[in-house]
Amino acid sequence: MSCFRQDLFTGTDVVKMIVVVSFSAVSLMLTAATPVNTQFFCPLIYCIPIIFAALWFPRQAFRATALLVAGFVIIRAHLLALGFAVDPVMTGLHTMLFFWVFGATTLFSQESHLAASRCRRIVEDTRDARFLCDPETLRVVCVSRKCADMLGYAPRELVGIPAEAFWADDSGKARFIEEMKLEGYVGNVEMTFYAHNGDARRVLLSCRALAPENLFECTVVDAGRLLGENNELIRSNGRLMELIRQTNDIFFMQDAVGCILHFSWVRAPEYGISPEEIIGKGVDALLPADLAAQNMELIRKVIEEQKNACYDLDLEIAGARHTFSITIAPYNGVDGTFTGIVGSARDTTEARRQRLACRQLSWEVEQWKELVTRLAHELRTPLQPLVGYLRMIVEDPGYYGLTKDTEAALKTCLECADQEQAVVERVVELSLLTMDYVDLTVQDVPLRDLVDAVVSEGEYERSARICNEIPDNVHILGDPDRLSMAVAGLVSNAVKYNEPPEKVWIRYTRSNENHYIMVCDNGIGIPEDIIESIFEPFYIGDARQDRKGGSTGLGLSIAKKYVLLHGGDITVTSEVGEGSTFTIRIPREV
């Protein structure tokens, strides 16, 4: 149809064309079969196709009229050449009559309501928000349902209303009229329209003049809704593309016959695969024949049942064996018709290896736990009676008739046995921390009270001056037993590796995300080359201090393990000869 670029030929249009062509053919055949001049009314049948063409197809009406007139004149000239009595004057009069009928019908068809009747079905049935209006009065002569819904009207309520009633201000209307008069076109101009309930709507207005129909065709787009949908679409697409870029998974689409429509894999270049080259090809471009056939069977099953399918696929790529976990699902278009399948594939080769390694490691851990338990039992068994008897003898040497030298020797043996027993207990504790899961009992902990308890129970004030500078109102979340052991390890270390005047400061600060507990001393300090080693099990930095305090080399290692269980860490700053500062970092949310 001439009034729209889209939907050019409907079923009704085809019927109209057949009618015009049929009458045209009948007219020409009658002219050829009735060459007598007395048949005055015979040529008048040409007026029928001319009138129909002018009413139904105004843009093509002149061309159709010219072809009919040319055919009429050629047939008359041919008959004259054959010797028939053909009156040239009548032929000229008929020719002028045909063009007069064309002109009169064309002028009549330009009346807006008549033109709108030719376009009404397409306008009313279109999915766009569209209306037709008279260029002189700007009254609406035809409107689509979507346009009426957007403005809050029923379609019939808008017919006859001046389109200018929609404009929120006269400037928009004046601009529209001026541009339509100058160019006959307005493209995506942002304006404000009033809806039926008085709400203002920001719209994009596009209009063009339909010259043969003497109408303005206007299309309206809800700019607010379009902007929201567009922004949401951009955000969704951005999230999807970011996900695809960050994952190593394969994403693909296939049609019903297995042709690859889309293929995306970040690691494709590593294996010499070009996604662009396999688009449009069958799945056999990627898989061997047997696996391609298996894939097609699953696609057919998904199509028939309209259900997802999951399966594993073993495939050799670049000489290495890979296992992929694949999920495929049916995909339907916006109109609900089946389009194909979409799917994803995840390389689970490394995950399978890790599962096997975890099973092996789990078995080894169980073996080590059993070995540690046995060793602890075997070491504790002889140490307990040894320590008990030595302590009993040393506490009452006169009862056993010991000399001073023997008493001193036995006291040394008792100290060594106590130290050995402490080493055994610490080794067992560290082993369990390393190999077993420790469940924290997280609760609100008053930090100053916890530090005071640690200092009191360890009797550290006998060896150094302890300054607890933590405010009374400080509370942190954590396991109080484990935190006490961690603080005790650092305070014990600060007291042990100190020199007169022996002082230890315990301080606190915090940030938006962490608590910080600092244990500072004025001791011997730690050389820079060994500062990373002090948290290793059994590491002892100074043999003299070891003999003085009976160190096992496990206190700092166990303290760090307990802090790591809270999601934190321990750091150290130190100057040799000036002292050290150990900082415990505990997250505010454990």
Automatic annotation (TrEMBL):
<keyword id="KW-1133">Transmembrane helix</keyword>
<dbReference type="InterPro" id="IPR004358">
    <property type="entry name" value="Sig_transdc_His_kin-like_C"/>
</dbReference>
<dbReference type="InterPro" id="IPR036890">
    <property type="entry name" value="HATPase_C_sf"/>
</dbReference>
<dbReference type="InterPro" id="IPR050736">
    <property type="entry name" value="Sensor_HK_Regulatory"/>
</dbReference>
<dbReference type="InterPro" id="IPR003661">
    <property type="entry name" value="HisK_dim/P_dom"/>
</dbReference>
<dbReference type="Pfam" id="PF02518">
    <property type="entry name" value="HATPase_c"/>
</dbReference>
<keyword id="KW-0597">Phosphoprotein</keyword>
<feature type="domain" description="Histidine kinase">
    <location>
        <begin position="374"/>
        <end position="590"/>
    </location>
</feature>
<feature type="transmembrane region" description="Helical">
    <location>
        <begin position="14"/>
        <end position="32"/>
    </location>
</feature>
<dbReference type="InterPro" id="IPR036097">
    <property type="entry name" value="HisK_dim/P_sf"/>
</dbReference>
<keyword id="KW-0472">Membrane</keyword>
<feature type="transmembrane region" description="Helical">
    <location>
        <begin position="38"/>
        <end position="57"/>
    </location>
</feature>
<feature type="transmembrane region" description="Helical">
    <location>
        <begin position="64"/>
        <end position="85"/>
    </location>
</feature>
<feature type="domain" description="PAS">
    <location>
        <begin position="236"/>
        <end position="306"/>
    </location>
</feature>
<keyword id="KW-0902">Two-component regulatory system</keyword>
<dbReference type="InterPro" id="IPR000014">
    <property type="entry name" value="PAS"/>
</dbReference>
<feature type="domain" description="PAS">
    <location>
        <begin position="115"/>
        <end position="160"/>
    </location>
</feature>
<dbReference type="InterPro" id="IPR013656">
    <property type="entry name" value="PAS_4"/>
</dbReference>
<dbReference type="Pfam" id="PF08448">
    <property type="entry name" value="PAS_4"/>
</dbReference>
<dbReference type="Pfam" id="PF00512">
    <property type="entry name" value="HisKA"/>
</dbReference>
<dbReference type="Pfam" id="PF13426">
    <property type="entry name" value="PAS_9"/>
</dbReference>
<keyword id="KW-0418">Kinase</keyword>
<keyword id="KW-0808">Transferase</keyword>
<dbReference type="GO" id="GO:0000155">
    <property type="term" value="F:phosphorelay sensor kinase activity"/>
</dbReference>
<keyword id="KW-0812">Transmembrane</keyword>
<protein>
    <recommendedName>
        <fullName>histidine kinase</fullName>
        <ecNumber>2.7.13.3</ecNumber>
    </recommendedName>
</protein>
<dbReference type="InterPro" id="IPR005467">
    <property type="entry name" value="His_kinase_dom"/>
</dbReference>
<dbReference type="InterPro" id="IPR035965">
    <property type="entry name" value="PAS-like_dom_sf"/>
</dbReference>
<dbReference type="InterPro" id="IPR003594">
    <property type="entry name" value="HATPase_dom"/>
</dbReference>
